Automatic annotation (TrEMBL):
Classification via Gene3D superfamilies: 3.30.70.100
Full protein name: HMA domain-containing protein
Lineage: Bacteria, Bacillati, Cyanobacteriota, Cyanophyceae, Nostocales
UniProt superkingdom: Bacteria
Length: 105
């Protein structure tokens, strides 16, 4: 599925790298192209659109027009198909709360 998402608080290439890393955690094969100036993330992925949006939010960014339905005290949930150890590392490094890992059985 190809998505084009407006991510209003992308400020630099570092932001683009973080978003790309988070998306690659849920799908290693995803193609991610981020235009920092236009604040647009283009993602080609087999993952569900909801999962892509949730992982961008979990990384600390805002997807324009998207409301996950989560308050700050609720958890974001998405299925992990990539490297869970990498997610723990990124999650820990970014110090973002509210991510519940759901492992495939």
């Amino acid at each position: 599925m190809a998505l084009q998402l407006k991510v209003s608080n992308i400020a630099c290439e570092g932001c683009a790298e973080i978003i790309t890393e988070f998306i690659h955690v849920i799908e290693v094969e995803a193609r991610v192209d981020i235009d920092v100036n236009a604040k647009i993330a283009r993602v080609e992925s087999a993952a569900f659109e909801e999962s892509i949006k949730q992982v961008i939010v979990a990384a600390g960014y805002t997807v324009e027009g998207y409301c996950s339905g989560s308050s700050s005290s609720q958890k974001l949930k998405f299925n992990i198909s990539g490297d869970a150890n990498k997610l723990f590392y990124i999650y820990s490094a970014r110090k973002k709360g509210g991510v519940e890992l759901i492992y495939p059985h």
